[in-house]
Amino acid sequence: MPDSGTTALDDDVSAPGNDATCVVCPHLWREHDPLGSRYCTATTASALTRGCICS
Fold first, then answer.
1. Cα gap 4→10, rounded to integer Å
2. How many angstroms separate the Cα of 14 from the Cα of each of 2, 3, 42?
């Protein structure tokens, strides 16, 4: 099957819109790098309380 160029987060309904503020950290979702997106998504999904890793 050809790669459509999408990632798991593209299909993830828990990922907020680009203008939304992240529920884990004080940054806009569009300011997250791939690692920050994965970290904040996992933090939300697991209902964890941990600090921000955004650079």
1. 11
2. 25, 22, 10
Residues 6+ positions from 54 with CB-CB distance below 8 Å: 25, 27, 31, 32, 33, 36
Tokens standing for residue 43: 């933090």
Contacts 24+ apart (CB under 8 A), 2-6: none
Can you say whether residue 36 is alpha, beta or left, with left for phi > 0 and alpha for psi between -120 and 50 degrees?
alpha
- Whether the pLDDT of residue 15 is over 70: the answer is no
Q: pTM for the complete prediction?
A: 0.62
Higher-confidence residue: 48 or 1? 48
Instruction: Report the amino acid identity of residue 36.
Output: G
Mean pLDDT calculated for residue range 23-39:
91
